Structure of Peptidase C14 caspase domain-containing protein:
Amino acid sequence: MDTHYGLRYRNLLNQHGYGYPFFPKPSDALPIIHIGDVGILTDDGGFEYLWNVHLPADHRRNKSKVPPEFQPLPRFRQSCDVRNLVDFERNAVVASPSVHPDLAPIETLPDGTTVFKFSTADEAGAVLVLPRGGSRVDSLKRGTYHEYAMSNTKSWYRYITRDLGRLVENGRLYLVTGTDTCSSWGVASFAKPNGAQTFTLKFVASNAPSSKGASCGTCVANFPIEYRIGATDPTKARHCVFARGFRISMHDSVPAQIPTVSSSPVSKARPKGAAVPAQTTPSRLLQASILLDAAVGPGEDGSVEMEYNGKPPLFALIVGIDVYKHRSGFDNLTGAVADADDVCDFITTTLPVDAQVSILRNEQATRTAIIGALSAMKTNDDIKRGDPILIFYAGHGAEVPAPRRWPQSMMQMLIPHNFLPSHPSTPEQRGILDVTLGRYLEQLAKAKGNNITVILDSCHSGSGTRDSSPLGVMSRGFKLPASYAIDPDVDDLKLPESYTADADAKEDTDRGNRGSHPAVGFKASGLASHVLLAACSAEESARECDGRGYFTTALFEVLRASTARQMTYSEIVTQLPLLPGQRPQCEGKHQDRLIFDGKAPSGQGVFYPVTATAEGAFNLEAGEIHGFTVGAQFDVYTSTDRNARPVSRLRATATDAISAKLTWVSGSPAQSIPQPAWAVQAKAGEFATFAVAVAAELRDALKSLIEEDDMTWDTTRAPPRRAIRLVRRSIPHELEVKIKDGHAVFIIKDKVCTAAAAAASTGKKFQLAETVPISDMDTVYAVIQSAAAFFFYLRLSNTDDNIAVHLTMFQVRQQFDKKARAFRYSPCGDGLDDERGMISLAPGPSNSLYGFNLTSGSSCDLYVWLFMFDMRTLKVDIMYNPTTARGGGALLGPGRDLTPGYGDVGGAWQFTLPPGVETDVTYCKVFISSEPVKLAHIAQHSPFNRSGVRDSGPQVALRLSHPAWSTILLPIVLTAGRV
């Protein structure tokens, strides 16, 4: 939808004094808004809900996405804190002065069809019609909201822009204190040529109380007009056409005066008994919407001084090196400094952030200066935990044989300006090894959080000299002399023996040491400390030509597109153009966060490419391994902007391993979809129903919540809800909800869990870690929905499995190798699985570490995801995820091993029991595919802890003629006292 239509509609109807007018979405759904809602006023005339000030942080509608130290207002009392002022009459019309409706509908049929006809002479106009009328409700305690907003404005803007990473414009934040709602509506907005013309709005909607279907209707005009017509159950007037409240903004100078506005009477437009609003004088009061400034402190002229500029911070270290002091056997570069300057320009002029940038060019970029700048970030008080940090390097790279007994045969390094490519050399003349950079990144992540982006436009292979071709393409990497060697003392390989992070241990103690989790000391290590965007794979060369690097140029062209800032790291890499001779890589546990956004929830709706086929259908680049089945429905978008509106809805009619065939949803008109396009799952397909046995006292309340959820869920902000089926205890089910002492108790019916609980303590059942008061049915329902998603992916498997991969779990021993001057991790003993295909452990005081080995018996390259499903908390952690590359990048080749938990693949894992718990069960589940897939959406946080997902001879590879996928499920049972 052209946002000009929504803007015109809002401006023209705003002058009637009813409040802020909302223009409905293309899906014919007006926003459902409540008193106390805080949200963002969108460009297209909508309202993006954030939280409600009357609900607790863990309420289902708030989902713990509230500002730090959030304190809700007391819930209002319907009988004395809120009043219904007046109602809109049936067939009410609210229109701009240029639009003149007939005094009565021109036709009203017995089936409820209502036809309105309008005439207009002006070039622009807008109209709202309410065939069933509407209801108005307002809070009587506006002063309470005013005071509350005044005291929280700064923290709200800071939270939204910094923690949520939203680029909300000043003055777009809105606190609702009153609404006008309806169950049937039609809106239109137009701009047309001069001359008197007519247009007609026709409604076809039953007025019967039992009607729940959406209405259909038409608008007939001989000029361009944007219209929306919709209806819901007539007994529930819940959709908002006007809202009143506080429009919150922050100013650092005297705000512009609001011009005087007069109201024009319109036939049937005003609610019954409502007075015609008087003209407003220049002030902060605009009809019923107050423009409220954060009173930080008045200046001498009466203006308000602004402490916070509303922009989220970003801290960057940028290094670009063209000129090298001790050049021997390799050439200087010509484009690295230009790349660094372009990155700096992007941060400071294009990206809407409050940037603090340190940039080192050529002779400034010595080894000491680079490491010093990295180390300074760790102690910089301006950098708060979770603030985005960017580290960019463009220059030469190289590799060298690792010391004896080192886990890998080769080590990579970045080449500072003063690097001396001979041996021996002084510490200041050495390169910056990958392990050294990794160590500083881990320390930085522990101090400032893991919202760290590392971009490397270099490589460790190549000649380092200019190609003989006329194009003058040059590699940003070179081969070191054979005499060059690593010296553990000189190259700063030594790691302190206290490396395992007291802070991590304290975090485990505070959390209660429950369940499975990354081992102490590993939470910020390796792939968990940062996201890496690299110019090429290990065997390729990063190249430059004509004074710029291929990778940096392409990457920042994509990032300068406005929609790119609403994309994840992995999505951005796949959007890069094909680069000659190099495939950019994305690595890191958090590669599915929005770029520069450490707080992005991993449970958001995922965008999948969708393309039109010659048969008139559509192909979705996602399939069975993603959990999609026949009947699943998808909203289709023309961009990956999460604030955009869908253009259509499609349904899956056939699925295979990694794709699905889509056609139009029954009853929807076939229409062309602009390309490129993306789809987000809106409804689960067949075989996705989750059966729950619930106490009789809870059934009615849960049924009501399920119905409400079907109407209001936003699939771009969260994954689709699984269908819930409430059953009797005699029907097979995964979850049972009982009542005990006024609390809902959740019983897991999984066979392994049931057997473990029975063996540990006679008569006890395996129940979730916490209970919920039955007075809080929203949270009870949230737990059920969390369980539905949890068990869906836990049980997901392929009945036509032809991939051979073996999974073994080992205990991992952590030792400090004094000769190698580093910690090493390796399996000790045999594999732990028994003849039943499960692991039995007794967690003890030593906090044993564990890792996994995957061995491929397949003839093709494979892509692997490894998840940990915690049965007591319903938490799903990612233990291992593959690299994202523009052209693929499988890591498990034929006959090869992958070792999550030790070696160079991630950190080790621990299994612990909290005090008083006798047994626990965790499932390790591996998803394997012959094609690259994105499965980060499977991870979820516990419904009892809503702060977010815890950072949880060579063979020739063949390509399968048909994509294949498989899963491996390994139960791990912890029992106190087991020997």
